[in-house]
Amino acid sequence: MMDWQYSNYSKINSDIQKHFPFENPRADQLETISEIIEAINQGYEYIVLEAGTGTGKSAIAATLSNMSESSYILTITKQLQDQYLRDFKDFRVVKGRSNFNCQNYLNQSCSEGKCITEGIDCKFSLKNRENEIRRDNTCPYYYQKYLALNSKTVISNYYYMFLELNYVKDFEKRELLIFDEAHNLELTLMDELTLEFSKGDLKEYLNYNLTYEKIDELNNSKYTNWIDFINEIKQGYIEELEKLESLNKIELIEKIAFVRHQIGDCNRFIDNLTLDPETWIFDWDEDNQIAQFKPLKINNYTRTTLFDYADVCIFMSATILDWKLFSKWLGIPEDKIYAIRRKSPFDIKNNPITAFEDYNLSRSFIKANAPRSIKTIDEILNKHKNEKGIIHTVSLKCRDLIMDKLDNPRLITHDKENKTEVIEKFIKSDEPLVLISPSMGEGVDLPGDLCRFQIIYKLPFPDWGDKQINQRTGIDREWYDYKTCLNLVQTHGRGMRYLDDYCHTYVIDNRFKSYIKESYPRNFLPDRFRESIEGMEIDLEEKNRLMKIGDEYLNNNDYENGIRFFKQLMDDDLFLNDIYPYMSLSRLYHETELYESEVQIIMKYLSSGNKSEHFNKQLAKLSDMGYY
User: Fold this and answer.
1) DSSP letter string, 427-484
2) Do 522 and 576 form a contact (C-beta atoms < 8 A)?
3) β-bridge mates for residue 565, sequence order
4) In this structure, is residue 512 part of a structural domain?
5) What is the pLDDT of residue 1?
6) pLDDT tens-digit map of 179-201
């Protein structure tokens, strides 16, 4: 773990104000931008910014883009792209083909358009154009792309730009690349690098029967066998493409587009696999009958696929939590990172967490306790009978159980296909609807009366039954708790979106209070999150009281009583994995020349999985003195 302090940088760069997009900046916005600019001037190529909700990260990104020669701003969703466009009119948004209708095949999207299905340069495309490019003589997909290519700042999403930069290559390197919601970057790249084959598609297009014997063989073989299998499938798709194209029938365009995509996916996967073949797995999704080739890590892929396309990369999120682990998992050396942390300006009293202690919803107990928990959920709904809210269920099974047992007309839910429509219905309705979902922890903005309460039904652990998650956790134990804590903090922030907003969060799973005191969660979860939990304020008051006593011993150089006191604090649950007693003991031992004891106390802290730049430097000094 690490001791990441909040920034107290206070200087303001004189050039910022004329590039800032709004008349009145929020607290610390100009200071944060100034600190980033100074870091860039010092030669840092990678800058991490954790800034809580309400700090105005979009305006920070916009100002930095305005001050650069050229930039990309990447977001996780098209909705966030549109939000940038609404706020900053001079920027250009570029989206994928599926968002536009083909000018040749009027009933098809551009993802199944003539230039895709026939493999030719569409007359509306940007290539080989001699006439002036205008809205009326250009395909809408290519026209928005043309505007973006010629724009100083381009807004896009991770998925589109990943394909564009690596395979289409119309967009080139820019001065600045800003990743908004950067905590999603690792999982997004994992998804982008994954190759999938549906058993049904293989049978329909290639008459290939993916047997369980073949699945077992792929599951137990090495990557060289995977490549042989994928090349076999790719060759089958190449032959099928030739047959489909020879028929020259417009009703086959969807199939032709699909086959072309499959061939391209096979080629891309083989290139990626050979770069780092030992960090991949084969997995079989029994429910959906899909064969999957997945990466466990992406640290060896980030630079060539994304980071090299800008002089400076900036990673922004409200939930970085630990910048050293974040950079490690993205393959960035620590000494190349400049990390900044800024607090949210929101009053935590407006976003309290009530944690119930009646229902253990772990796998062993959920069958017995889930039906009993319905009464508590019903009581919460009645308490907020005139207000909108969300129930975060984490799993589909929990969602279905609550929907079935409550049978409440206020509850609405969604599936994969209609999620956007259901959210829109929820937002527009004047009724006190309650949105129940396993996947609303982030990516949805519900300010004000759209979300006055929310229920976190069970702890949002990543699915341990998922082979990729299971094996990744075997490589990085802290990764599992990091993702859990990230999910908790992101979910907690769904209902608190502006300064005077308010939302009450309830946690049904009684493992919550004990979990947040464990080693990794205790260090990952920000102070403000813990301070929002009802009942925790008593612990924090007591902790502050003890720290004042300790500070008095330090200030008065009361070495004997101070050493005795801080040794007791190390065994106090309030200071579990807290650096304070260790740091204080280190100081007291050093000042009393008990250097061997100082080495022991530092090593005790570090050997528990904690990290501290201060202690690393102190050990170096002690080593020079001959004590380590």
Assistant:
1) HH--S--EEEESS-SSS----GGG-SEEEE-S-----TTSHHHHHHHHH-HHHHHHHH
2) yes
3) none
4) yes
5) 46
6) 999 999 999 999 999 999 999 99
DSSP state of 603: H
- Strands 411-412 vs 353-359: parallel, antiparallel or unpaired: unpaired
pLDDT for 559-596, tens place per residue? 999 999 999 998 887 787 678 899 999 999 999 999 99
Q: What angle do CA 97, 102, 103 make, to 5 degrees?
A: 140
Residue 421 lies in a domain: yes
Task: Clarify whether residues 448 and 319 are in a common domain.
Answer: no
Residue 8 counted as domain residue: no
Q: Determine contact, residues 323/48, Cβ cutoff 8 Å.
A: yes
User: What confidence score (pLDDT) does residue 111 get?
Assistant: 64
Q: What is the pLDDT of residues 361-385, one digit of tens each?
A: 998 899 999 999 999 999 999 999 9
- The reported pLDDT for the residue numbered 464 is 85
Residue 377 contacts residue 508 (beta carbons within 8 Å): yes
Closest CA to 564 of 595, 580, 588: 588
User: Which is more confidently placed, 71 or 126?
Assistant: 71
Q: What is the pTM of this model?
A: 0.83
Q: Which two tokens stand for residue 607?
A: 């050997």
Main-chain dihedrals φ then ψ at residue 435, nearest 5 degrees: -90, 120
Planar angle of CA 145, 149, 154, nearest 5 degrees: 85
Counted domains in the chain: 4
* 8 A C-beta contact, residue 34 and residue 13: yes
Burial class (CB in 10 A: 0-12, 13-18, 19+), 391: buried
**Alpha-carbon separation of residue 361 from 352, 358, 625 (angstroms):** 22, 10, 53
* Cα 535 from Cα 421, distance rounded (Å): 39
The per-residue pLDDT for 556 is: 93
DSSP secondary structure letter of residue 39: H
Res. 140 pLDDT band, cuts 50 70 90: confident
Q: For residue 354, which phi and psi values (nearest 5 degrees)?
A: -105, 120
Q: Which domain, by its residues, includes 558?
A: 538-624
Same domain membership, residue 518 and residue 563: no
The number of helices, as runs of H, and strands, as runs of E, in the chain is 26, 16
